[in-house]
Amino acid sequence: MREFISRAINKSSKMNEAQLRDLIGRIAEEYSLLEAMMDSLSNGVIVLDSFHTAVKTNRAAARILGRTFHESSDKPFWEYIDDEKIAAFISSVIQNEEGETTEEFILSRDSGSRYIEISVLPLVEEHRVRGTIILLEDITQKKRTEINHRRLESLASLTNLAAAVAHEIKNPLAAISIHVQLLRKNFKACDLHINEKAQKHLNVVEEEIDRLNKIVVNFLFAVRPLQVELAPVNINKIINDLHQTFLDEFKKSGVYFSLRLDKTIPIIQGDERLLRQAFMNFLTNAKAAMKTGGALIIYTTCKDDFIEIYISDTGQGISEENLHKIFEPYFSTKSDGTGLGLTMAYKVIKEHNGDIHVDSVVGEGTCFTIYLPIHRHENQLLLENKNEMNDPFDLTEKTKSDKKKRESI
């Protein structure tokens, strides 16, 4: 293209008006084709000149970075980037002449976090560096697939340990518990007085046995294949029951706990016991995130072939680097947490062919969105007996109104 234009310029003095017009048309056509090619790419492309200003960008670059960049501006390109980490990366690679460099970043948007891969490489022409090319790729789906794969691998590896854990820990714990009880009986049978200090020691032993036993039971629940017993399940009723159970406890902790339940959602096929346990774990997690009080609200709605349950709290939030780890076994940011509650909940939802999406902002709160499938070919029942709910927080407004209210939280 450059050689063609150079030859054309050299011969331009000998061209008549028609030939010049034809030449300009051919150049414009080539440029238009280049523009179309750039804008057809799914990955972002940004070309910088030797002064580090943008001379060419495509639509994908603007979409991925969330803003439009003006070409031929008077400042280095990185000064127009909102994300400080990305700006620092591009600036460092270019100014330090590091050559081709690739790095991954997390971009926070109103619609959620996105994973972006950015490559910076020199633009070389005739063995000379003429500028810089920046390539952008949205790898969010790829990262989510990798995260889900790691979760499944983690659960699979833990399943292989379940039998050993049951024999190596649970049985000895039972033996210790029995012998503590026998020790108490022997003291009583021999009319031996247990002093207060010894009594405290025995109490501590029993408490720790109970705690360890609970950890083992939760662990086995998390790794063993679940025996899902399908039956008609009323999701609204489960949530409403849990609301009544936890309301006083949340109130004492300074947490305002309310519901917005869509009465028109259908009954689904599921295991009520397992689903109740899963939602209980979500509530426990939300309460732990709001140590100084706050608000917890649960919405239900029906969209396409899924029931959607939104559990939104105003707690401390989850950092971006931890967001993809929260369903992994034994991951916990709480000093007294087992790291199995959300793992168990995740497993239950997955066993019901459902899914979970998490949005969180540190210092503002977290929203879990749970999707449970509606087996319309198996069950077309609707919740007609609205009197069973007796819930003052139920809405009768349209789903669109519910959605607007959720987005405002």
From TrEMBL:
Highest rank taxon of the organism: Bacteria
Keyword list, A-Z: ATP-binding, Kinase, Nucleotide-binding, Phosphoprotein, Transferase, Two-component regulatory system
Assigned EC number: 2.7.13.3
Residue ranges occupied by any Histidine kinase domain in the UniProt entry: 164-376
Annotated Pfam families: HATPase_c, HisKA, PAS_4
CDD domains xref list: HisKA (cd00082), PAS (cd00130)
Molecular function via GO: ATP binding; phosphorelay sensor kinase activity
Domain PAC residue range list: 100-151
Domain (PAS) ranges: 30-100
Gene3D superfamilies: 1.10.287.130, Histidine kinase-like ATPase, C-terminal domain (3.30.565.10), PAS domain (3.30.450.20)
Coiled coil spans: none
Catalytic activity: ATP + protein L-histidine = ADP + protein N-phospho-L-histidine
Record-given protein name: histidine kinase
Native organism taxonomy: Bacteria, Pseudomonadati, Spirochaetota, Spirochaetia, Spirochaetales
